[in-house]
Specification:
Length: 161
Amino acid sequence: MFEMLPEYVTEEMLYAAFIAGAVRIVIWIFFAYTIYSTLKLVKKENQNILPSQAWFVALPLFNIFWNFEVVRRLTDSLNNEFYDRQIEVDERPTQKWGMWFAWTFLISFLPLPMFILIVVSVLHLVYFITYWVKIHEHKVLLKMHIAQFGEDYNAKKEDED
């Protein structure tokens, strides 16, 4: 099996690459779970993406495209939910960091000089962590609001009474 590989590629290098790839997929699964659990808190009428579609973020290569969709649709879903609940947050929650995350992920797959790829990879890691934290912050904000006012709370109904 290893006969087809160049001489400088050792068996240990292959195992290390396999383990690194597996760890990366596990991280993506945890990231997808954060998106999934955030979307589960959003009312169905405010969802622009189904919670089950969040898992596509963990699919290698397909996620190059899907990251952009998740950023856009998750932002719209959160925006709708926060508007209905009249919670003051940024107009487009998570979008700025999400787009930086998606673009740096895309750029990291382009055939560029190594020093550029290293810089882009470091930036991607920073934006990925920041985006994940922002999603989690908004999830916690929604959980707190639901705990205080209930799942079916609608600020418009309260104003009409």
